[in-house]
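Bench notes, afternoon.
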Amino acid sequence: MACIIVFDTSTKACSVSLYRDSELLASWHRVAEGYTHAEELHLRISEVMQKAQVKFSQLDAVAVGKGPGSYTGLRIGVSSAKGLAYGLDIPLISIESLDLITWGIETPGESVLIPMIDARRLEAYAKVLVRKQNKFIELESTTNIILDSEAFTALLEKYTDHSIHFVGDAAVKTRDFLISHERFNQFTFSPEGYPDTRSIGSLLEDLFKQKRFENVITFEPFYLKDFMLTPKRG
């Protein structure tokens, strides 16, 4: 029966949750206009632990949203997770921040879900999932994309019978490019979607049982953008 603290600071959202045996014991989640993670994270971790009346010595693992997202936010979150894991001598678990947006989302039928994180300017981090038999299957792994009228052309041509759901803080920018598309009424845009740690208890428990642990010394955030070369269009 694992007791796991998990947090994500990859976006404007700061999300902290504590689980025991996949049951949520306490949490704190807030979306701020500015990035306040340096001031908030350690305070909120302590508050969540105190609220659940759990001591740090009782933790079995620490989990963190590994990105992609804000460079500074990721450094804060991952450094904090590594510090806890090393200091308490417990395993470190990482989860893609885009998966923290999609986990627990309900969509009708065989829907296509595209979680997105704003990468500034006209760029976004995104991945593509399709819902089949009550579970999401990854169609395209996380990548850094240029948002324009051609960004999702191949996808929209392939999944003509599916509703398409864009979720995340880059959804509004995407909507602006697709508003004249002939299938626009089949799209939904949910810009309020941010990485959220409050509904991933079963995921954490599975990762812990499978021993999907990171090396505390060498683990680094999943920056993505720093290492992507995006070719010019046309």
